[in-house]
Design a protein that fits this description.
It contains five helices and five strands. It is α+β, with helices and mostly antiparallel strands. Strands 4-3-2-1-5 form a five-stranded antiparallel sheet. The longest helix is centred in the middle third of the chain and has 38 residues.
């Protein structure tokens, strides 16, 4: 018992206050989570809400609650929110750039699979991209792009263009 008393005496008062506040916040968090879940179940049953909408609402509220509690704990333990916001902003920026780069490739691949499956045009068909005023004969359909040939040479068109623009298909004679 003396060892525990000595340990507590060595601790700073500020540390004990932070620990006590953290415990109170965690208990309030758990109680709030339980009340929110129970209230949402009651509201959903009372007003016959769609289960998918109720689940989405629960995720949004719980995500907000978790975020609030984490930020509160960071403040209590002396974290600098300015540095936290800079870090979060940087991470989100990198993620957004990555998703944008991958989105382009993935959309072309999905479009290529759809072109392969639905078969809206075939090799040797002549395609006219109405908005771009481009005409060319299909010489290859790839996963990411389609090769067209006109009088000037061969050019490639990303597959997702065929789903974003009006395309006329002229069958070979």
């Amino acid at each position: 018992m003396d060892q525990l008393t000595n340990f507590i005496n060595k601790l700073e008062t500020n540390y004990l206050v932070q620990l006590a506040i953290t415990l109170v916040i965690i208990i309030l968090f758990l109680a709030s989570r339980w009340v929110i879940k129970k209230s949402l179940r009651r509201l959903a049953a009372k007003f016959s809400y769609d289960p998918n909408r109720t689940a989405a609402t629960k995720r949004i509220i719980m995500g907000s609650l978790y975020t609030f509690v984490i930020l509160l704990l960071v403040i209590i333990w002396g974290g600098d929110l300015n540095n936290l916001w800079v870090s979060i902003g940087s991470i989100l920026g990198v993620i957004a750039i990555g998703f944008f780069a991958i989105w382009s490739i993935l959309s072309n691949i999905v479009a290529g699979i759809i072109i392969y499956t639905i078969n809206p045009f075939k090799i040797t068909d002549t395609l006219v991209l109405v908005e771009k005023e481009v005409t060319g004969k299909v010489i290859d359909i790839g996963l990411i792009y389609t090769k067209l040939q006109d009088k000037d040479g061969i050019f490639t068109v990303p597959n997702n263009v065929f789903f974003q623009q009006i395309v006329k298909v002229k069958k070979p004679k």
